[in-house]
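pasting for ref
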Amino acid sequence: MQARTRWIAHLDMDAFYASVELLRYPELLGLPVVIGGGRRHQPQAGPDGARVFARLRDYAGRGVATTATYAARDYGVHSGMGLMKAALRAPDAILLPTDFERYRHYSRLFKAAVAEVAPLIEDRGIDEIYIDLTDVPGAQDSMGHDSTGGVRALAQEIRNNVRRATGLSCSIGVTPNKLLAKMASELDKPDGLSVVTAAEIPTRIWPLPVRRINGIGPKAGARLAGLGIATIGQLAACERGWLVEQFGRSYGRWLHEAAHGQDDRPVATHHEPVSMSRETTFEHNLHAVRDRDELGAIFTRLCEQVAADLQRKGYAGRTIGIKLRFDDFRTVTRDLTLPQPTAEAGTIRHAAGLCLKRVDLSRPLRLLGVRAAALVRHASASL
């Protein structure tokens, strides 16, 4: 009997934050909408009772776009872009504030819907997961042949479940491994389903740009471009030894394997977090002396949020740290290791405050963050 085919799916929610907001404001469907900025951009009730939305052209500040609808992306607006820059590209776009509690709620809903069909899930963040479909009933035919019909039907069932549970669409790529699945989920976005077999790598994967491989970043992409390598197929045509000479033994070998669609990583159903952090970028620069009260309140709130995250997930941190970004974009971090791990807001606030005293605060700040690292389970902590 032929060996069972390995089937790994990558599910990515389509424009997740923006799509969640469109459930709340269906009148914005099809319009360019950007999510970001502060709570002052909440929609207001007009004289006739209809909602009045903030426009991107009226924004002033240093916030960045968290995400945007596909209509806004058509104007060149993307996540991480400064809202002032986005306003130049799409001045009439609607501006909505982020609502992470609501996004986390819908994240839990879609993951539960997936688990009803396929329980082996690797959580990769608020809007994406990997799913091992190999042993899910229906993924393999009775003879164990490499047939895509069963696994395609399973993936469609997952998509249907997600839509019923959330009202949202997702895109799924199903392939023999995680590396390929990540690329396949982007082939037919939004609301797409792509199944790619190993035999289809030359026709469906090799024509893609090298940056589509998760693990080839801007620097490596630029280096490959300088060597005349633009597509995954061109990378696959390179000899392993030559890639090792150009990029070093480990990364060169990985580039060769990735270009040929080789990846044996399992779907990890549990991850121990390395750290937990909260940070905020200010709407306008704040000074440690002039804006001491405002900064102090923000600092305390960040510490409380980190403590709440630790307690909710059952961890405590031995190392507490801070992150500061000044008006000249210089970033500074400081850490302090405690005698005992903690998940208490007061202890975190005290330790983070000691870190803060080790930084020259003469320049205005644009970002402040608090972090807990060296995490242990609550049972191991003295709280």
